[in-house]
Amino acid sequence: MNTKEKDLKYIMHTYGRYDVALQSGKGATAFDEDGKRYIDVSSGIGVNSLGYCDEGWVKAVTAQAGTIQHMSNYFYSKQPSDLAEKLCTLTGMAKVCFGNSGAEANECAIKIARKYSFDKYGAGRNEIITLKNSFHGRTVTTLAATGQDVFHNFFFPFTEGFKYAEADNIDDVKNNIDEKTCAVLIEVVQGEGGVNILDKSFVQSVAKICDKQDILLIIDEVQTGVGRTGKLFAHEHYGVKPDLMTVAKGLGGGLPIGVCLCGEKLKDVMSPSTHGTTFGANPVVCAGANYVLDTIANEEFLNEVERKGAYLEEKLREIKEVKNVRRLGLMVGIEIDGNAHDIAVKCVENGLLIITAKDLLRMLPPLTITKDELDEAVTILEKTLKEITI
User: Fold this and answer.
1) Fewer CB within 10 Å, N or C, the chain?
2) CA gap 92, 72 in Å, rounded
3) Cα–chain center distance at 19
């Protein structure tokens, strides 16, 4: 059996895969098992922030793998300690909790918010407001936190304690706040929800309300963080500071990581046995994340992300079949006529690895993608859209 046949036979069908078996890659270029070449503007849904097999990242990961690959969290470890220090120094947050995914990071933030409120106000103040069209993960609790009805099926009963407000509608947020509210959880750019870029005044108003009423502001930076939007973290565009922030995807550069960061007033909320994970703070994963942060967390790199994003948007808007472009940095949603999934499948056939977000095409290219690779990606997309409309 070949790779596809084994997959279909032995792996649960929880993904609608493209008909490609990738074998290798470098930068923003990938090759399948037949040697066919692709330009990848999906980067593993924003995970491969430095592209495929960045030499420095590979060296950092392999060096750590050859030293000590894993230890219990009952022991101290240099790589996660260094990473925690960098994250707190760069963000002004106080402490971190390591996990393995964005969903786990959001679970941790939810637990911290509820425990903080329980410790300070007693039982009953435990509800969290999220936004419609949000996406926060696929565990039973983070599905409940996700503000999309399509995800609230099959897996009953879902975790209680969530309300959903309209994005960019501050009155709806206010109307959902009551004596039971302990936190508001938002993405400043809703990735899976359609690359919806929230209004700055709305986000600032939410932050002010939270601060005034001792309601915790949680910002989900799972997809938007680590340079994706041209800032180290997307909330920097909005001039707000969260009480809790979740990070994953691009931080690991290709290895699984999730981090929940908290501000000063929350740093002592969690104590031994209140949360944990076997693989969180894995030293090999953290070695990769340390290298990613060392590479991305400088002004010139981040400015270049914005320049590339602006260039890509300009080129996309020149395509006749493109109706509109939603973009912040290198987080891009492309409005087109037709079925986005079918168009994406055709793009893959033509050598462009691209993904969707609702009825949009979505690009999350490696932050290190070159202009030549961007040009090639746009050329393939334009060719594909012309084929579809003929």
Assistant:
1) C
2) 28
3) 25
> Which neighbouring-strand residues pair with 129?
163, 184
Query: Which of 203, 183, 206 minimizes the C-alpha distance to 265?
Result: 183
What Rg do the C-alpha atoms of the chain give, in angstroms?
21
| 272 preceded by a cis bond (ω within 30 of 0) | no
Q: Round to whole Å and give the CA distance between 89 and 210.
A: 24
- Give kind and range of the element (H or E) at residue 144: helix 140-145
Q: Tell me if 215 sits within 8 A of 243, measured CB to CB.
A: no
Under 8 Å between Cβ of 167 and 196: yes
Q: In the chain, which ranges are E strands? A: 22-26, 29-32, 37-40, 95-99, 127-131, 162-165, 181-186, 189-190, 196-197, 216-220, 244-247, 258-262, 322-328, 331-336, 352-353, 355-357, 360-363
**Whole-angstrom distance, CA of residue 3 vs CA of residue 285:** 27
The SS3 call for residue 160 is coil
The amino acid occupying position 388 is I
Per-residue burial over 171-186, b if 16 or more Cβ lie within 10 Å, else e, is ebbeebbeeebbbbbb
Neighbours of 146 (CB within 10 A): 27
Nearest to 76 by CA among 252, 281, 259, 291: 281
The whole-angstrom separation of Cα 180 and Cα 184 is 12
Task: Give tens-digit pLDDT for 168-200.
Answer: 999 999 999 999 999 999 999 999 999 999 999
Instruction: Supply the DSSP symbol for 228.
Output: T
Residue 4 tokens, joined: 């596809």
**Spatial separation of the C-alpha atoms in residues 98 and 96, rounded to whole Å:** 6
| Cβ-Cβ contacts under 8 Å for 154 (sequence gap 6 or more) | none
Q: Which of 86, 96, 109, 104 is nearest to 219 (CA)?
A: 109
Whether residue 283 has a cis bond before it, omega within 30° of 0: no
Cβ–Cβ under 8 Å, residues 186 and 176:
no
pTM of the model: 0.98
Eight-state DSSP code of residue 238: G
- Residue 156 DSSP one-character state: P
What is the per-residue pLDDT across 343-378, written as a single tens digit (0 to 9) for each? 999 999 999 999 999 999 999 999 999 999 999 999
